[in-house]
Design brief:
Elements: H1 18-24, H2 42-45, E1 51-57, E2 60-66, H3 68-79, H4 91-104, E3 109-112, E4 123-127, E5 133-140, E6 147-148, H5 150-162, E7 168-173, E8 176-177, H6 185-188, E9 195-198, H7 202-207
Parallel strand pairs: 5-7, 6-8, 7-9
Antiparallel strand pairs: 1-2, 2-3, 3-4, 4-5
Length: 216
Amino acid sequence: MRQFRRSDVPRYRTPMSPLKSRLLSSPLLSGPDVRIKKEEQPELLLQNELIALGSRTPDGHIVTAVQLPWWTIVQKIKNDPSFLGYFSKNPRALEEFLAGLYRQAGFEEVVLTPRSSDGGRDVIAVKRGFCSVRILGQAKAYKAGHLVGHDDCRALIGVLTAEPNSSKGMIVTTSDFAPGIKTAPTIQQFVPNRLELVNGLALPKWLSGLNQPPEL
């Protein structure tokens, strides 16, 4: 006689009711079982297109606008500056975010340079007319504790020297700068008029000066 096994019994799963489904996905739930919308997960959010690119120039592509995910990231950084740490897993996203920031800050022409062979500039931002300026921006997407060093600053100073039509350089990092950078003789003479250093504490303050974003 064939022995009875539990696996012989058909299994039926009761369909989940619409109400239960909504409750399980509700953002009001707390604790380890909270479900976060995929598009709001930091790693996935940074994979979105943050800016719209237009025509190509010798240095890269013109930034024509910021996308909705860019504003979402702005809000998340304002609410919790530690969000900046996620950029370390996607450095290109920080370059795009910085390009969008220059655009929203009123620069008339913003260029995002290529991923490689960028000449030491990740973003080029230009204001024309009276008091016109040309900024060479670098983005350093580092984890907390990974500091921007003296050599990084001296390298951008070298780029500024090689491009005399540039007004100043800016290094923006999600982390911080090594101790003594602003007092080092070879760097101090350039700070802040020719070289501006923005760390992970100053970046959210820069964002606070932006115009009110659209409804998210």
